[in-house]
Amino acid sequence: MSITLDQVTKQYGGVPVVNDVSLDIGDGEFFVLLGPSGSGKSTLLRAIAGLTGVDHGRISLHGRDVTHVTARKRGVGLVFQNYALFRHMTVAENIEFALRVRHVRGKARRQRRQELLRLVALEGMDERLPAQLSGGQQQRVAVARALAHKPGVLLLDEPFGALDAKIREELRRTIREVQRELGITTVLVTHDQDEAFAMADRIGIMNLGRLLEVGAPHDLYSRPATRFVATFLGAANLLLARRTADGIQVGGTTIAAADRAPAANEHEVVAVVRPEEVELAPARATLTSNYLAGGVVDEVVFTGALEKLRVRLDAAAQTPLLAHSDADGAAVELLQVTRTQHEQRGFAVAPGQNVAVGVRRVHVLPTPLSSFTACAASAQLAQELSHEPLLAELAARMKTRITTRTEARLGVAEALSEAADFVGTTVIASQTDCAHRAEWLLRRGARDLLVLPAGARAPHRVLIHWMGEAARSATLAMSASVLRHVPAEAVYVGIFPGQRAGSSGPRGMRELLDARSEAQAAHGLEMRTELRFGDVAEELARRLAEAPAQMLIVGITDLTRFAERFRKLLDGGQWPVLIVHRGAP
Amino acid sequence: MSFRQASVLPGFGLTFGFTTFFLSAMVLLPLAAMVLAAGSMHWHEFVHVVFSTRALDSYRLSFGASFLAAAINLVFGFIIAWTLVRYEFPGRKLIDALIDMPFAMPTAVSGIALTTVFAQSGWIGRFLEPLGIKVAYTWLGVTLALTLISMPFTVRAVQPALLEVQHDLEDAAETLGAGRFYVFRRIILPTVLPALLTGFTLSFARAVGEYGSVIFIAGNLPMKTEITPLLIVIHLEQFDYQGAAALGFVMLVMSFTVLFAINLLQAWGRRRQLRAANS
Question: Measured between beta carbons, which residues in chain B are less than 8 angstroms from residue A149?
Fold first, then answer.
């Protein structure tokens, strides 16, 4: 491995900018770190270069641990967005800078300079000053300069940001050619997905300081695991669908899902439909794909090769379309569609026209968090609960919706037997007899339950714990899903009964390590681990009281004496608790 | 030359007229009057006043101390500017504002304050006394006063230039293997050198012309701590206008020579860059 990052964390003022990032980049690989601005990708690149220290974790280059080695001694080449050429030096002096520092003799220096100038196609420009070159040429000089001392790793920080489209393309090709010719391991940071697709062997997508997913461009595009990646990498329509025994039920039809995960029981899922997988036809009968719903064309934009449309689905459609935000950040509940010239010729549409909408391919996200249901004893309370800042923030970040549900007889024992169907994650307000109400809801079939204190804010730390191995996977998946949307650190709290009994030690450690590696492998979640001794609910409550802005995610399998056991944790608690219940209701 | 050139301000003719008028009325005419006054002296008389031992000693002190003050400011002014530009610390804005204090204070006040502190019984002077260092009433005091009142010029000249040295340049140099001193010498210094020279020139010019603050701390012993402007005032007090004008003329010529030389140096530096660029 050329570059190995192990749980790298960098904080500014207590807020993690790079949050537990672990990554291996192979020899000669062209790796692209892709993310929106502020996602921590540039900070991570600077950490690899040694220009920014890390608070936690290790960085190795070619098997050498360089975590505490200065940038000077790391032997990396770095290219900046604004070129960062030395303006008072000629092209030749710029390129030879690293060699002069190393006291390389004149002749060898000149030879290397000629070699590099040929590599970046700037022969004969030796005596020019940077100010006399175009932006593209300056960046070529910067690339040559970064390669002069034969670094083991080339790092590019948004190198095309300041260039216009045509030069950008040309320079992309040059850099890719140089990289292939030298076989140098390269990391490129960008916010431009076209750039990432065009250049990368593998892409790593960052958001809120976390490395969400890593994979080949095609895999990430066709099978994203998170909503963020689905919507950031190309356009995507997110739909709330149901996973049934037969497949994925979207709108009027059931489609066999691309992934054939067995559905244990019916539940709500988030489905991704790419705009190019949508088919429009005059009527349902003429569709060649699965019928989704009827709709009205809202907008048609001609962009050359493709036509971009927005279609408003009929209100009667059984599939709720999750709002996505458009370029201005406004929420839009319209289906995005792109059609080729060929499709346009087959069926021309105009705004206002009624169409039948079909989908060719649906991808289901593995996330367990589909939508939220604010649940309270009266409609007004439920409405208020749905406006809680943390809930609203989570829903906005997850691009999902909050519905309300009135349970007039919430907590009344006689009402327990009434049939109920809980969709998504149920949310209740934290209050005095909270544990009792939580048990009531869980017994009636709520699978995921968020207990929310009034005015709770986004947590800085999420504590994770589960009781019973059957809940482990689900708890980890839920934790990973939550942590993708809040910039918080994840801590697994292992708790063992009694005082520091020596006997449970080794077994406990083993469990802890297993949990960590499963979280990492299956959910891409990096977490810290802590070990405590005592009664579970008591210890968790104590741990939560230790610091502000914490949240708990706890997995349970068994509801026996639930209210009694969790009273300390839930009744009047000042922290949000997410209960993941897997097992018989 | 055409007087029709596009510009935001109306009429090149009008603005050019104002420029020449103001320069003439405020600078050139008084200077000419002074030269005329000096010129009306007899040649022999002129030489006697201008090359008297007392005058020569005053030139040495005035220009020597000014040069020294400007040189001190070159180093410490740069450090102050660097601190203010590069670091974020509580009270930074306050210190930034304090820099301009010598601009705003009547120079006599600065002189009195310095004398109070550095006199033999002053706060600092009393500790220097046992070491055999006398500041007040010596050339050291003169240099100190000139350093104080000319310091803002260097700081304010260098600050904007330092702001332009991007962090990226230093980062780039560091990843290429350069140590701190190398980065300073090869990257930062060349970038701010023109600004440093300008700061030096301004400080020097200000120091040469200074009068108010120096007369309090200098003690004004003839041939020891007497600066040329003071000598001029002494001539004036004796109603020897011609003698004062003669000394003024010498200062004018010397100051102009120094400033012109520094300007040439800067122009040469710029040309060298351009030549490197065009070859």
Answer: 176-177
A134 touches chain B (CB under 8 A): no
> What single letter denotes the amino acid at residue A139?
Q
A-chain residues near B173 (CB < 8 A): 86, 97
Q: Is A197 on the interface with B (CB under 8 A)?
A: no
Residues in B touching A88 (Cβ below 8 Å): 190-191, 273
> CATH number for the domain including B266?
1.10.3720.10
Give per-residue pLDDT as tens, A449-482.
999 998 888 888 999 998 888 888 889 989 988 8
Question: B10 with B89, same domain?
Answer: no
CB–CB contact A98 B176 (8 Å): yes
User: Which residues are bridge partners to A405 per DSSP?
Assistant: A375
- Which of A90, A97, A129 minimises the CB distance to B176? A97
Query: Residue A242 and residue B201: Cα distance in Å, rounded?
Result: 79
- Residue the block writes with tokens 């063992």: A496
Place of tokens 């709709």: A295
A171 touches chain B (CB under 8 A): no
List A356's β-bridge partners, or say none: A281, A294
Report the residue of A87, A99, A138, A141 to disrupt the B interface, i.e. the one with the largest count of B CBs within 10 Å: A87
Least CB–CB distance from A78: residue in B175, B186, B191? B175
| B111 and B189 fall within a common domain | yes
B166, B174, B187 ranked by CB distance to A51: nearest: B174
B94 in the same domain as B66: yes
Interface membership of A88 toward B (CB under 8 Å): yes
Question: Distance between CA atoms of B82 and B162, rounded to whole angstroms?
Answer: 7
Q: Distance (Å, rounded) from C-alpha A94 to C-alpha A83?
A: 11
Both B162 and B103 in one domain: the answer is: yes
Number of domains in chain B: 2
- Nearest-neighbour CA in chain A from B82: distance (Å): 19
Closest CA–CA distance from residue A97 to any residue of chain B (Å)? 7
Report the C-alpha gap between B48 and B54 in whole angstroms: 11
Helix (H/G/I), strand (E/B), else coil: A218 = helix
B45 vs A182: CA distance, rounded Å:
81
Q: Are residues B91 and B21 in the same domain?
A: no
Chain B interface disruption, residue of A61, A69, A78, most B CBs within 10 A: A78
Output the six-digit token pair for B46: 């002129």
The average confidence (pLDDT) of chain A is 86
Q: Mean of the per-residue pLDDT values for chain B? A: 86
CB contacts, 8 Å: B272 with chain A? none
The answer to whether A129 contacts B171, with C-beta atoms less than 8 Å apart, is: no
Per-residue DSSP letters for A28-73?
T-EEEEE--TTSSHHHHHHHHHTSS--SEEEEEETTEE-TTS-HHH
pLDDT at position A258 is 55
Tens digits of residue pLDDT in B99-119: 888 888 888 888 888 888 888
Partners of A128 on chain B (C-beta within 8 Å) are 277
Region B134-163: what's the mean pLDDT? 89
Domain of B46, in residue numbers? 42-278
Same domain, B91 and B78: yes
Asked whether the predicted pLDDT for residue A63 surpasses 70, the reply is yes
- Claim to verify: residue B122 and residue B246 sit in the same structural domain: yes
Answer for the pair A323, A374: CB distance below 8 angstroms, yes or no: no
Res A585: pLDDT:
46
Q: Give yes or no: residues B197 and B71 share one domain.
A: yes
| The pair of three-digit structure tokens given for residue A405, joined into one six-digit string | 């549900």
Subunit contact A129:B279, Cβ cutoff 8 A: no
* CA-to-CA dists, residue B70 to A497, A556, B65, B154, B243, angstroms: 76, 76, 8, 8, 28
Please write the tens of the pLDDT for every residue from A351-401: 999 999 998 888 888 888 888 999 988 889 899 998 899 998 888 888 788
The CA distance from A96 to A283, in Å, is: 68
